[in-house]
Amino acid sequence: MQPVKDRATSLALFCKVVDNYGDIGICWRFARQLQREHGIAVTLWVDDLPTFQRICPDVALDAEAQQLAGVAVRHWRDQEGVFAPGDVADIVIEFFACDIPPGYIAAMAGCDPRPVWLNLEGLTAEEWVEGCHTLPSPHPRLPLTKHFFFPGFTSKTGGLLRESALEGQRRQFQSEPAAMAAFLARFGVAPAEMASLKVSLFCYPHAPVAEMFAAWQSGDAPVTCLVPEGVAVEAVRAFLGSAAGAGAAATRGALTVRVLPFVAQPDYDKLLWACDLNFVRGEDSFVRAQWAGKPFIWHIYPQDENLHHVKLRAFLQRYCVNMDSLTAFSLHWNGAPAPGVGERADWSALWPPFQADMAEVARRSAGWQGEMLANGDLASNLLKFSRSLR
Ligand code: TRH
Fold first, then answer.
1. 299 and 383 part of one domain
2. What is the tally of structural domains in the chain?
């Protein structure tokens, strides 16, 4: 279905880069989709341009204001700005509860009508989200009400970020083996490696990568592991026996490891589509892996007191229907003890059953996509909710 164009609406999205790439990765994807598919005039306020540049090489580091892919990008330097009601967008979104400048909030209070103000939250599969999604939070002093908006995996949440053309692009790419081979050849993947199990690896530094490498190396089926530069640096360096810069590669036993440059966001999707198995992390690559229709293993962002294990289990409970090998593998990858397998992971024992179930896991991936599509996409759901408030 064609989304309804809404040319009159403006939207300001405030993004503070706390750590890593996920915050700006999500906001940049979201901003482009709102502009391209819904005709919204989006201003993306972001505090960290160098991190932004890694996923979008067109970003100019010294520009206070720049236009990128139809989105007005503003360097959010500090909280000091002075704003008038005319500067305020129709919809104001703070990502992940970041504090937007007090001057902007004061200007919001002076608007007539007042803008829609949303706090776009992080993704979790936990049930409590359904009770908090769209809840209002009145400002203690000003005549403004902020609403919480939660992405999620059920119809009682805001759904997941997904561009309307994404599925078509993926199917097209995956239907052309030559295009996939040409894409991977850019990173040095040799024709013979195309027949191996191709794995992309994106994880946090504490993932048990060295142990996984050892299991693949001594296995009987060839594996080609593609690792973006800067990821799992210690294990990659140890395997290569040299520096782990982009372009570095080595083969030991059944395993070939190749270091890739950190690619722009659209190419990262292609990488996920071209591989047979994807290790992803955080929030955005995790969601992209779900749309890639391939088996994936999620490394969740660590939190104090192992709170992330609760979130991991909540997701696995929804996703891993009758897939014990995937559950065991995922829990151990995240250092979360798996019932029946013991606390210490034996990767040579965990890998074969998972590998044997991979076709089944891929089928589940397709079924899951169907379920997620039925919830609509985050951008459309958010705009629908915003209109209901105006
Ligand atoms: O970078 P992350 O670890 O981000 C995390 C999560 O968002 C987490 O929820 C948040 O709380 C924490 O940061 C602070 O992982 P994530 O979310 O997958 O974001 C990575 C982004 O980088 C994603 O948009 C994909 C993109 N990317 C590229 O564009 N090129 C690449 O080569 C790679 C590996 C990733």
1. no
2. 2
Q: What are phi and psi of 232, to 5 degrees?
A: 50, 45
Looking at the structure, do residues 33 and 59 belong to the same domain, yes or no? yes
CB of residue 228 inside a 6 A radius of ligand 1: yes
One domain for residues 145 and 199: no
Asked if residue 170 and residue 104 are part of one domain, the reply reads: no
Q: Is residue 1 part of a domain?
A: no
Give the tens place of pLDDT for each residue, 329-348.
999 999 997 666 556 678 99
- Indicate the Cα dihedral angle 266, 271, 272, 276, nearest 10°: 160
Q: Are residues 171 and 146 in the same domain?
A: no
Q: What whole-number distance in Å separates Cα of residue 244 and Cα of residue 257?
A: 10
Which secondary-structure segment (H or E) carries 108? Answer: helix 102-109
> Is 149 touching ligand 1 by the criterion CB < 6 Å?
no
312 with 383, same domain?
Answer: no
In whole angstroms, give the CA distance from residue 283 to residue 20. 11
CA of 319 from ligand 1 middle (Å) equals: 21
Report pTM: 0.96
- How much distance in Å is there from the Cα of 285 to the middle of ligand 1? 6
Ligand 1 pocket check for 262: Cβ under 6 Å: yes
Band of residue 179 on the pLDDT scale cut at 50, 70, 90: very high
Q: Identify whether 6 is a catalytic site residue.
A: no
Domain that holds residue 112: 10-160+375-388
> Is 78 part of the annotated catalytic residue set?
no
> Helix-strand-coil percent breakdown of the chain, rounded to 5?
40, 20, 40
Nearest CA to ligand 1 atom 3: 282
Q: 129 and 180: one domain? A: no
Looking at ligand 1, which residue's alpha carbon is closest to its atom 29?
A: 265
In-domain check, residue 247: yes
124, amino acid identity: T
pLDDT, tens only, 281-325? 999 999 999 999 999 999 999 999 999 999 999 999 999 988 999
- The enclosing domain of 60 has a CATH number of 3.40.50
